[in-house]
Amino acid sequence: MSADALGGALLATAAVVAAAWAAGAAACAALVPRGRRAERIGWGFAAGTAILAAGTGAAYSAALGSPAIGPILLAAVAAGLGRRFALGDDPVGTLRGPGGRLAAVTAALAAVALYGLIVYAARALAEPLWPNDYFAIWGMKAKTFFAERAIPLRLFTWPSFEFSNPGYPLGLPLLYAGIASILGRWEDHALALLFPCWLAATLAVLYGWLRRRGAPPTVAAAAGAAVACFAPLYAAPLTGMAEAPLAFALLLLGTALADAMDETDPGARRRLALAAAVAAGTKNEGLFVAGIAALLLAAAAFVGRDRAAARRAALALIVPAVACALLHRLAVGSHPVRGIDLAYLKRPDLGDRLAEALRATWTVHLRSSWLPIAACLVLLLAGRSVAHGNRLLLLGGLGAATYLFLPALCPYGPLWLVTWTQGRNFASLAPLLAAAVAARLAALPRGGAAPLSATAGVVT
Amino acid sequence: MIARRAAALAAYTLLLVTLLRFAPPAELGARAALLGRGFALPHAERRAEGRGTEYDRAFFRFLLEARDLLPLDARGVALYAPDIPEWGGLYLAVYELAPIPVALAPRRLPEGWVALAYGPARPSGLRLVRELSGGAILAP
Description:
The complex is a heterodimer.
Chain A: H1 6-27, H2 37-61, H3 69-84, H4 100-125, H5 132-148, H6 154-157, H7 171-183, H8 194-212, H9 217-228, H10 243-262, H11 268-282, H12 284-303, H13 307-332, H14 350-366, H15 370-382, H16 387-405, H17 414-427, H18 430-442
Helix pairs in contact in A: 1-2, 1-3, 2-3, 2-7, 2-8, 2-11, 4-8, 4-9, 5-7, 8-9, 8-10, 8-18, 9-18, 10-11, 10-12, 10-13, 10-16, 10-18, 11-12, 11-13, 12-13, 12-16, 14-17, 15-18, 16-17, 16-18
Chain B: H1 2-21, H2 25-38, H3 43-48, H4 57-69, E1 76-80, H5 86-97, E2 102-104, E3 113-118, E4 127-132, E5 135-139
Parallel strand pairs in B: 1-2, 1-3
Antiparallel strand pairs in B: 3-5, 4-5
Helix pairs in contact in B: 4-5
């Protein structure tokens, strides 16, 4: 077997990812109540990848001889904290599965979700990571960090590296570099293993959260099946880039936001803090959606029913998101976002540009997909208003509305942003919006019984 | 409520069928076969045969050859490849040569840098360091 054989690289990378996942799961004892296995798996991946990225960044900052020491130390600390602040059983209690015919439907939907996961794994792993933005942005930075055991400032200050978007968060490059540091070599084919793991973690959090918030297994599995097969997001040309991790982070953010506002359990605000850090560290859009969540919490703190809960949640959200953004600026300076110029807000032709942006959105993204989009709207309208679902809907809806508007501010013309980034941004909202729609559908009364989400204890 | 449930069921069925059309078993088979073939190939071959290099596979082989033959004291590389598009082309070069800094066709070479020229055209004022298949390494 040659030194760079794929089998060995996959096994070694899988071992590193599994170890990080296990460390994250240990830390999650303090985040997710005991007994919520699916959510612990999903949040464990979030915590594990965050440990790898943050530990690697810390090791570079401290100029440690071996950057792998950073994640290992941080994992030990996180596991210790998990043990020290471990949560008890979930107040919701035991969740029962479906019986009879519904069990077969749920199993079939779970099989579809598994099929979607396998297809995505095959897409991701078929060849070394190859999308242009992986080469130009995420991979180039990560490979340089790994080779130089540092975050060289030239990547962020030299005009010739402007194409690499110096203002983008460094979470993903640090994660890639962290894995390479532990392996001791750069493996840009085996790194693709992370991507089906992101989908698996997304499905685990989606299913677990819906079940905990009262959705029947069939509805939760249906949401999972649709998300797992969502090719515009889980596609080969996006593998290696930040969209799948961002979609995961936004789902974490939305579900934790709803839980923190309702104070469902003592770990809700801790989850919100982790989700805010992961979202802000993954992509600028993550920081932006965290900002929308902060505005929602600010509104709830002034006019909501439980103002104290909203204030506590706002603190849990804002501190890590702002800390993430500040650390980035301290480390590599402040950089304008390419493709967006706020000066266009003052231009007299803003209305025309917005109309052009909407026309382009229709032509490029919506016209060919009107039927599934209409189906999503029917699903949304068929559901029933329920607070936790509406919060996710509001968060995702405001994000989508902003993505509709942003091309009007693009200096290269609205069509440029619509063509190159808007579709990806819409797609990364899919798991969050799927959770919102499923939560609303789960609130429909069943056969004259009370709405499922209203049942506090055992749900079927 | 029954109408809502029926509408939701119909809409979900339509949605799932549409989504599944974009994940056909044939795609799974083709990608699995590609992955299976990859187990027998070294990394460079997997990259060379993949999507990332399909615009000009000879350019990728040129890059690999150049990377191995660059002077050890080269502080950076100026890349002159006028026929290669930035998108999916030159950025692959920047990535493959990392951590060596790469500038795309600068007017002047910074001190300690060398030039990589792909194709028959050569930037003026530079001396030939080494001829490569499809291009050359040059220096001031």
